[in-house]
Design goal:
With about 350 residues, the chain is α/β, with parallel strands linked by helices. Helix content is about 25%, strand content about 25%. It has eight helices and 27 strands. The strands form six sheets. It has a seven-stranded mixed sheet with strand order 5-4-1-6-10-7-11, with helices on both faces. The protein has a six-stranded parallel sheet with strand order 13-16-19-22-25-27. A five-stranded parallel sheet has the order 12-15-18-21-24, covered by helices on one side.
Amino acid sequence: MAVVLAAGEGTRMKSSLPKPLHRICGRPMILHVLDALSELPLDKVVVVVGHGSEQVTKVVTAEAPADLHIEFVEQATQRGTGDAVAVGLTALPENLDTDTDGDVIVLPGDTPLIGSETIEKLVKVHLEGDQVATLLTAKVPDPFGYGRILRDKHGDVLRIVEHADADGDTQEIDEICTSVYIFKYSVLGPGLRRLVPQNQQKEYYLTDIVGVLADAGYRLDTIVLEDFTEAMGVNDKSQLAAASAVLRDRINASWMKAGVAMEDPKKCYIDASVVLGKEVTLYPNTILRGTTHIGDFAKIGPNCDITDCVIGIGAEITNTVAESSEIADFAKVGPFAYLSSGTIIDTKVATGPFYFGSDQ
């Protein structure tokens, strides 16, 4: 089984970085998607890059899960999602359709909330049925901007209509396309070749392949997301903030289940890469970034901003900004302290208030 992941689809945000590398909870968006894929037994992951391809390739190569076999293919001219997948297929073996695992998962790089369990469920439903494609859909309270799922009177999928091309009645439909699919390889390529850019964007929409396959008499299936937030795409700064809030709540809930105490979880910001020991206590307005590692029984906050630091067992840090520093076991730092890169606070040392630490 293989994956084609389109790394640069959707509207690009105005920034110095391409959208797949915008960080959400300290980690580039595309890496959250790859993390979810790392739980599956995959032969190959093809990442289709376009805008900012060199940066995307560099980051993914350096930080993606080591057990994923990743290959990059460039979509030199962005002609739509359908064209991106067609470009991605060029990196797959020609005999894939004759293999027992002749299926291809297709998903975008801008859905950082998608979970591995959801993808596993999609694959399971697909492999256990006789359909040529299985779509992941979601029912959302505000479907604006998403492609709508059109069904016949029997509930079978007819096609997907993009929001820009939908009439008033179609825009009232609350079931949307998440842009996550699994296809039989044998029908995916031929289906893509039948796409035509007859839409407002004049692009080759991958969503149109659903209508192509349905009109050809093939059976399609869907599974509907239980948690529609997994389908949240990120196309602007507002959506980036909304997705970050959802992921932050998930991270905090996971740590609290593991025994971390948070006086006010809504005011604790923890990057996905941070590691917390047992019985850690976090007070309001605590921000933990990067590769920070907090030892058992430490107490952090309130009002701390800590980046890439190692903090020892039982340490207490209050009203402090610290970066790339080491705070040993049972040390006390703050209040109103600043630790610049390279600072080391020894075991059981108490800095007192207004401490300025550095490697000098």
